[in-house]
């Protein structure tokens, strides 16, 4: 079994501020840093650091060579990472306030240049039973889902950012959803976590669902089983890659056949470690570090 992450890659411009800026307001940033990022790249790095054998497919511009190098340095295969000589790599402008909360402006760049032809070429290297991980920051997602499902791949979907393009996707072909509370509300039309899970089960009865709830922990629902996982105690510095870290560690462990309880605990602990550090991908811990770090759960 191989894992393909067909996803975005961004150069993150991170500004540390006292508070998230309001309309019409000007604020002096205390610190400015550049990081490798993008939900796709973050999740590929998290998968690799969690011990998975993962290939990243996507597109960068000539200015994105640093992202290819970063993936390779972190053990991610880049055979199917394309470069467009005329496009500009996707990038973000991220505000991080004194409490570690963030606000993100995203420019898609070459992430929005994925065509059906490119998708077909990439998917031709994979087969039935392989795992496809998707977010919603690249173009041609509906086509990729349809083709992967027809091939018999196992489809993992993190529908973030949730926008009008999601309506074009046949989400009934997804095998595993990883969503936060806001995305769950947007998909299911209800706000209570248990109601979200019930609605997801009705809408997509063949899919397992992991719902992350921030300080309230996370819940797995699938195959008639519910597993609730509290968060671990840490001092939050930057929450930018928390969800991506959770996704990578959960997917790696889940498709390796580990018990769901173990997968949830591992992913929650890895996510907690990541929020205690600055940056997106650079904040993601290794599997050994997660196993060796002692943290207590917040009940």
Walk me through this protein's architecture.
This protein is an alpha/beta fold. The protein has one domain (3-292): 3-Layer(aba) Sandwich (UDP-N-acetylmuramoyl-L-alanine:D-glutamate ligase), CATH 3.40.1190.20. It is built from 9 helices and 13 strands. Strands 5-4-1-8-9-10-11-12-13 form a 9-stranded mixed β-sheet, with helices on both faces. A hairpin with a 5-residue loop joins strand 11 and strand 12 (218-222). The longest helix is centred in the last third of the chain and has 16 residues, at 260-275. The chain is globular. The mean pLDDT is 94.
Descriptors for this entry?
9 helices, alpha/beta, 299 residues, 31% helix, four-stranded mixed beta sheet, nine-stranded mixed beta sheet, UDP-N-acetylmuramoyl-L-alanine:D-glutamate ligase
What share of the residues does DSSP label as strand, in percent?
A: 15-25%
Oligomer: single chain
**Dominant shape:** globular
- CA-to-CA gap between the ends? 36 Å
Broad structural category: alpha/beta
| Fraction in helix | 25-40%
- The domain tally reads 1
Number of helices: 9
């Amino acid at each position: 079994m191989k894992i393909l992450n067909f996803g975005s890659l961004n150069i993150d411009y991170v500004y540390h501020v006292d508070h998230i800026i309001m309309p019409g307001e000007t604020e002096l940033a205390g610190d400015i840093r550049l990081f490798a990022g993008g939900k796709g790249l973050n999740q590929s790095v998290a998968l690799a650091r969690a011990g998975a054998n993962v290939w990243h497919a996507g597109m960068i511009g000539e200015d994105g060579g640093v992202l290819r190098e970063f993936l390779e340095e972190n053990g991610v295969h880049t055979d199917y990472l394309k470069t467009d000589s005329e496009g500009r790599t996707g990038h973000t402008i991220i505000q991080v306030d004194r409490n570690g909360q963030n606000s993100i402006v995203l420019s898609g760049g070459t992430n929005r240049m994925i065509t059906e032809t490119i998708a077909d070429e990439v998917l031709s290297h994979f087969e039935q039973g392989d795992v496809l991980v998707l977010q919603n920051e690249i173009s041609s997602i509906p086509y990729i889902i349809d083709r992967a499902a027809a091939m018999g791949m196992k489809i993992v979907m993190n529908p973030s950012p949730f926008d009008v393009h999601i309506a074009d996707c046949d989400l009934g072909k997804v095998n595993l959803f990883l969503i936060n509370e806001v995305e769950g509300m947007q998909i299911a039309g209800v706000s209570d976590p248990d109601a979200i899970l019930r609605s997801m089960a009705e809408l997509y009865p063949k899919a397992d669902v992991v719902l992350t709830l921030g300080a309230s922990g996370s819940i797995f629902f699938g195959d008639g089983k519910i597993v609730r996982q509290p968060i671990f105690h840490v001092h939050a510095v930057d929450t930018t890659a928390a969800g991506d870290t959770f996704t990578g560690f959960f997917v790696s462990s889940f498709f390796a056949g580990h018990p769901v309880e173990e997968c949830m605990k591992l992913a929650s602990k890895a996510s907690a470690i990541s929020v205690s550090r600055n940056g997106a991908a650079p904040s993601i811990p290794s599997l050994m570090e997660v196993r060796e770090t002692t943290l207590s759960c917040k009940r």
